[in-house]
Amino acid sequence: MVDSADTIYLDNNATTPVHPEVREALAGVLAECYGNPSAPHQAGRTARDRVQQARSQVAGLLGCRKGEIVFTSGGTESNNLAIKGCFFAQSATGKRHIVTSAIEHPSVLETCRWLANHGAELTVVPVDTTGRVDVGAVAEAIRSDTALISLMHANNEVGTLQPIEETARLARERGIVFHVDGVQAAGKLPVDVTALGCDLYSISAHKFGGLKGTGALYVRDGTSVEWMQQGGHQEGGARAGTENVPGIVALGAAAEIARRDMNKNRRSFDSTRPVFEELTRTLAVTRLNGHPSERLPNTVNLCCLYADAMNVVLALSVMGIYVGTGSACASHTQEPSKVLRAMGLSEMAAYCSIRISTHPSTTIEQAQDAAGKIAEVVERVRLVTAPEDIGVCDENCPCFFEDGKR
Amino acid sequence: MSESPQVEILLIRNDPPCERCRKTRDVLDKVAAANSRVVVREITVSDPEAAQYGAVLAPMTILNGKVVAAGMVPLQSGLEELVRRELKGE
Questions:
Q1: A111 domain-assigned
Q2: ipTM of the complex
Q3: Considering CB atoms only, which of B57, B71, B78 is closest to A384?
Q4: CATH (domain of A343)
Q5: How many CB contacts within 8 angstroms connect chain A with chain B?
Q6: CB of A308 within 8 A of CB of A196?
Q7: Which residue from A198, A380, A391, B51 could staple onto A351, CB 3.0 to 4.6 Å apart?
Q8: A215: containing domain
């Protein structure tokens, strides 16, 4: 997405611009749809109808019934609700064990760790060097008291897709609830939660053209969840609080647009991604982080060894190119990415990794322009950087290259 | 009449300057001492001008408007090479 003639925004896994058609839908709601959906009068009824319309639109994107959608404040709340709600629904029966992976978003991992301080037992399964979970490792982690398996559909930093269908089959065979954090996949990939076979699926509106502060959780009919937010009877009692009508309408519109444009967007992603992948061949000591094929179509995470990512990102920013250093939730901490470290990258390699995530509107010309500037900046940063100032490399690091000398 | 400077190296430093800020300034002074067409200018992170370079990670070294190092001391040899390229218009 281009904000102006001078900038190219390539940080769409962090957030996306609001889709122009969503803005249009939103303008009408902000001007006219001010009623409280719980109110019995016509203003309330109008608002309720718009919320229900959005529920149908989201259900259409995910391939479920509209009664299985709970609106939330975003991906983080959806993940919290799914994990805590599922845990507390089962903990009284003695099921207190949770299985998750090492590369989950903080809203999953930190929620699981919080539960571990409140009676849960946690198993964090590792990933391979491409960021993929081994279903066999999940199977080995399962115990008789396992209440929940929680995995992400697509990783936010490297884009690697997880074996969701296989894990869902495993969970079903063992009678375990399966939650999928679909925040990065929804809107970019076709998602059919029924076909996937999961019980809970989290999405976030602003990752595909909606507003920040809105999300949803798919809860398969019959899934036992202890609702976490008490108060009124909104969302059928699942999530108390007056509905965020503008945000929900925007989410519904974004869901419908994403579903409508899915194939067109995929063709766009497929045309621009190779432009950035080519940097692994044209730039010295540069490799792709993530799975070579089982990956989000808009995501290219590059380890440009000896070029500190924060330097690269700031230098590109001044040139009007916006890329990420990792997840937006972690990039301000200046700690090496936990995802990349879990994949086996050394501290140095993790510090030298940038994330490029395109938008359906990103053109090939913009991708080529940006790729050229990335190459220029990486080369410049390498010239002035002492490797020992970046971080430590180690012998287990897959960042090693045969021609890995500066 | 002296030749007009053609390369400006801007240092954005912490206030008061940290150890790395001081070391960076030393490197920049050496680069400038070796080439009369280089001038060094210094501002603090709270200077409004610093905001245009995004999240400021001091010390930041900016060569003719291009960020070349953030949060670390640049190598003198690399900086001299970049100065040479700037003067050649590369």
A1: yes
A2: 0.91
A3: B78
A4: 3.90.1150.10
A5: 66
A6: no
A7: A391
A8: 33-260
